[in-house]
């Protein structure tokens, strides 16, 4: 029996229209009744999934959001990810929790840098991808050029499932190649309001394009799609709502139900009777009024019941989950039960961390959620020295969320924070002030990158640490870290200490 669950992420380069598509999927799926747009003069649209203050100020997504909706008996768990490359860690971890992805491409820009990076992450995990070519109501590139670019750059077979009837000023709708119906624009705004022309008269050039497309590209093959070798391609406009319903239908019919998850000692099948899951994200202060802290858990097997006791790998003590949450952005409701593929939120006070496995029995550990070595290191300068305790709490919270990494040097009292991208530093300062009422500044650190160090023989590691004490620190878990002044220094030190391992990633 196929599970009625579809857990998927939306990935894209910034400004390709990912957040707008997220809203319209929720609207089409009946999860909301308004598209989450603020119409007041002078205000930009604010997507409901972008709840953080800095997201609303800058019009970008900087944290993953989880939204659940149900259509025609199928429960969709939609994970909206940050498009900006500075938040690639959060996106990577989110992609460990999904079974498929929707890749959004701007019709005028094609494959962009961040799209390609995110696709490579999907490929590493064999995540099947449906492609949505957005903004076809505007002037864009030739559909054949877009399809060829997807095929060439991403090394994928492509299968067009719909086709734009004109683009930009000559846009007349979107043809569904399976049904033969054309979704037509209506009204002054030329949006899709449900009018489908089932017996369309198409221009001769469009008929020729369709014949070429169907003859020149692959036919849809469900197995090739689920193996990650083929991507079905839908054309549309998220803003004008063309192709959104077709996308939901494609996810319902073609996207895989919950898949086995990599774990030790063996992968965990969704058919396993015992409840297991892993925490892929922690978010503090989603509701600033209550100073809450939510761990997002992907349920991998078993039927979860409210009040169950689960054991986290972090400390091995069973915890009772009394108030599990299902999400729609900031809105939430208590979940009495959940099934494999579902994402539930577990309120806690520092008990759960990213990478924790939760299970009814010990002995299972999900794998594949690493920490990445930071590319930017900064020292934190507190403007009010009396708030040292609040700063420590804030940095610990955000390190647990994966927003930053915190390193405590062996010598000196200045804490060092590490991030992958510059924008993460802006988020850090914004959240320190908005959520923790801590004013701080950042100053350059005398280091450029960090490596986790280990050795088979503890004596070798101790000898290295003693000789390089000024460059040694501990992460928030107490693991030894070597802070390097440059990538060259990393290579130089590695050559000098062959018995010591220098890792750019660390399994959580």
Automatic annotation (TrEMBL):
Species this protein is from: Sphingomonas lenta
The encoding gene: prfC
UniProt GO cellular component terms: cytosol
Main location: cytoplasm
Cited NCBIfam families: prfC, PRK00741.1, small_GTP
Gene3D superfamilies, per database record: P-loop containing nucleotide triphosphate hydrolases, Peptide chain release factor 3, domain III, Translation factors
Biological role stated in the UniProt entry: Increases the formation of ribosomal termination complexes and stimulates activities of RF-1 and RF-2. It binds guanine nucleotides and has strong preference for UGA stop codons. It may interact directly with the ribosome. The stimulation of RF-1 and RF-2 is significantly reduced by GTP and GDP, but not by GMP.
Tr-type G domain mapped to chain residues: 3-259
A Pfam family the protein falls into: EF-G_D2
SUPFAM superfamilies: EF-G C-terminal domain-like, P-loop containing nucleoside triphosphate hydrolases, Translation proteins
GO molecular function annotations of the record: GTP binding; GTPase activity; guanosine tetraphosphate binding; translation release factor activity, codon nonspecific; translation release factor activity, codon specific
Any Gene Ontology biological process: regulation of translational termination
Subcellular location: Cytoplasm
Keywords, in A-Z order: Cytoplasm, GTP-binding, Nucleotide-binding, Protein biosynthesis
Record keyword Membrane present: no
Protein's name in the database: Peptide chain release factor 3
Family: Belongs to the TRAFAC class translation factor GTPase superfamily. Classic translation factor GTPase family. PrfC subfamily.
